[in-house]
Design goal:
The protein is mostly beta strands. Among the domains are: 162 residues, no CATH class; 118 residues, Lipocalin, CATH 2.40.128. 14% of the residues lie in helices and 41% in strands. The protein is built from 6 helices and 22 strands. The strands form 4 sheets. It has a 9-stranded mixed β-sheet with strand order 1-13-12-11-10-2-3-4-5, with no helix packed on it. Strands 14-15-16-17-22 form a 5-stranded antiparallel β-sheet, with no helix packed on it. Strands 6-7-8-9 form a 4-stranded antiparallel β-sheet, with no helix packed on it. Strand 20 and strand 21 form a beta hairpin. Helix 2 runs antiparallel to helix 3. The protein is globular and about 80 Å long. It starts with a strand and ends with a strand. 42% of the residues are buried.
Length: 438
């Protein structure tokens, strides 16, 4: 067994959408304002791998199973993607199928939960989140028909509250290019991302086990003990022009932020095959509190992990006692897989058109928000610096300064320099941490 422990050290947030006066703006994510102004480019090519998850639970001779097909990673306004999801609930009693029910076009799904009743077979409940509203749907046994039927009123059999509910078993299998990746865990009812505990991952190549063990994520920040770990994937895809398939598993754990609020920390685990050892190695990359988007905007087979530099956010407006007003802005970042280095590497400066697009949106977001959050101004200025426009960047920082940025001007400049934005155009931004197991 190989055990992987991941330390998440960074604090990120992803920005909200906006219209920009120049270049029609760029994607940014809700829930912040500006989502209605999203403009897409025809060349945009975001990737939406789907996964199939099987969720099952059993009680007193009743077996409930859900086969769920949905995007591997949560969708948001960044991509303006239409929800494509479906699920089938099957209930069996003493081995005989007594109910099948289909669901479609939901945002999140949880269940099945089985509840023991005093004088009737167990109740089966699922939680289906459709746009704008949650909906608990319960199914009870109908003696007259010998079938399970969906409740149509609030009246149902009396439950036995003294009995605990059985666990929900979860399994997710991805198969492609002679690779099979299987994740198993105990799912928590009510967690909309099918989160849970006791996660394990097994990867096989040509039938031979190349990786097997628990998925263990640790953080240097205080864990929020009331929240379970969420994992997205595994998905199998080629990340670069070599065409070699990789297994991507994205994990998230809840922490207590410096302001006492719950926040998530996400990390990508990228498994790649090592021909010498005939095993899979794992490269881990910490993103902070927002997942990056996968895209192939250049349509060249080189996958881009698109995010914003929230290590800069952590150092400035998200640090404890900062006077700078916060949102989820920040300069854009592009990361790509390097097969030679066995890890993700930053390649932001190779995308000047995208930087320009993002800078325009950041400025519009800053000027359109009622209280002009400082984070968007700093993100805009840093984008200009990435483009080599130092004079314009300094001029814009002064032109749009707020009382907060005026007071913190020296600190802002010092940290822009520390993170490589005020260095020469060849200097790379120092941001996320990537670790590769060798």
């Amino acid at each position: 067994m190989k055990r992987t422990t991941i330390s998440l050290l960074l604090t990120f947030t992803l920005a909200a959408p906006a219209i920009a006066a120049e270049n029609k703006g760029y994607w940014m994510s809700p829930p912040l304002s500006g989502y209605a102004h999203l403009t897409r480019y025809a060349k945009d090519n975001f990737l939406f791998p789907n996964v199939q998850t099987e969720l099952s639970s059993s009680l007193e001779g009743v077996d409930a199973k859900v086969v769920l097909n949905a995007p591997a990673f949560p969708l948001d306004g960044c991509t303006n993607q239409t929800i494509r999801s479906d699920a089938v609930l099957q209930i069996s009693k003493q081995g005989k199928v007594v109910c099948k029910h289909k669901f479609s076009d939901f945002e999140f799904f949880s269940g099945p939960r089985l509840t023991e009743n005093l004088k009737a077979p167990p109740t089966v409940t699922v939680n289906v989140i459709v746009p704008k509203q949650p909906e608990y749907q319960s199914f009870d046994f109908d003696k007259s028909s010998g079938k399970y039927k969906k409740q149509t009123s609030a009246d149902g059999p009396a439950s036995d509250d003294s009995k605990s509910q059985p666990p929900i078993r979860a399994i997710r299998i991805a198969t492609a290019d002679e690779i099979t990746a299987t994740a198993k865990w105990k799912c928590e009812f009510g967690n909309l991302n099918c989160g849970g505990d006791k996660w394990t991952l097994e990867i096989k190549r040509e039938g031979q086990v190349g990786w097997s063990g628990p998925v263990d994520v640790s953080v240097d920040e205080k864990r929020e003990n009331g929240r379970v770990m969420e994992c997205f994937g595994p998905v199998i895809l080629s990340l670069d022009k070599t065409g070699k398939p990789k297994v991507l598993l994205r994990c998230g754990v809840a922490v207590e932020d410096h302001d006492g609020q719950d926040d998530m920390r996400y990390v990508d685990m990228i498994f790649y095959y090592d021909a010498d050892s005939k095993k899979f190695k794992c490269s881990t990359h910490a993103w902070g509190n927002v997942m990056p988007h996968l895209a192939d905007h250049e349509h060249d087979g080189q996958i881009e992990f698109i995010t914003q530099n929230f290590e800069l956010a952590k150092a400035l407006w998200k640090k404890k006692d900062s006077k700078l007003t916060s949102g989820s802005g920040g300069p854009i970042q592009f990361w790509r897989w390097s097969d030679k280095e066995g890890k993700l590497v930053e390649r932001t400066r190779e995308y000047p058109a995208q930087i320009k697009r993002h800078a325009a949106a950041s400025l519009t977001q800053f000027t359109s928000e009622p209280h002009n959050p400082d984070c968007y101004l700093i993100g805009y200025v840093a984008d200009l610096l990435l483009l080599g426009q130092k004079d314009l960047a300094m001029s814009e920082l002064l032109k749009h300064q707020t009382p907060n940025t005026k007071v913190a001007n020296e600190e802002i400049l010092a940290l822009l320099k520390k993170h490589g934005y005020l260095e020469s155009s060849t200097t790379k931004t120092k941001s996320s941490q990537t670790k590769s197991s060798k």
